[in-house]
Known about the structure:
By secondary structure, this protein is α/β, with parallel strands linked by helices. It has nine helices and eight strands. The protein has a five-stranded parallel beta sheet with strand order 2-6-1-7-8.
Amino acid sequence: MVIAIDGPAGAGKSSVARGVASALGFKYLDSGAMYRSVALAALEQRRTPAEVAPGLRIELAERVLLDGRDVSGAIRAPAVSEAASRAAADPTVREAMVAEQRRLLSQGDWVAEGRDIGTVVAPGAELKLFLSASAAERARRRAAELGVSQATVLAEQAIRDARDRGRAHSPLRPAPGAVVLDTTELALETVVERIVAMAEKLRR
Ligand code: CDP
């Protein structure tokens, strides 16, 4: 079974997806970490994301490994967030990442999160969620996580959101049949419980 969780930055996708995967004993796929890894490699090698993407070895487990090196911390830097959103608009980059994501999802039970899991990567997913939250609340959560000001996050987030929603290739939008959950006023545990309940209903 595949559970697809999409939504904008700060909607709670990562924490929710991890929680749901752990509750159900499913594997967890953080597709954003792949776009972040491509962006980091491109920045470091001073090449374009499209040039580096096809040859990279990205391993996703407890830690994110880029050609064997632990980049779990480095890929979360704000400069990499911005570069990842630009890299993710490139069709060559998306093609390479989507192929790898589909290969992973073809075996076993997964909770996969990103921007295009329900629309492009796994349109046949048994359960699709689209998590949203107000821009202010999303910025508040991300600022707390990174230890920076909410105003800075809000400005950067607005640019990234507009790019993710407006791009020609795989724009961020709810998949047909996705359950849209506004998490602005919901605790993390509540969101996890609701999704786990939906999944268990489907498994019965
Ligand atoms: O954690 P956050 O929501 O800020 O970002 P992320 O999920 O780590 O993704 C980083 C960037 O990669 C996003 O801004 C998107 O532009 C891109 N992305 C994408 O295009 N498609 C995905 N399936 C996942 C991420």
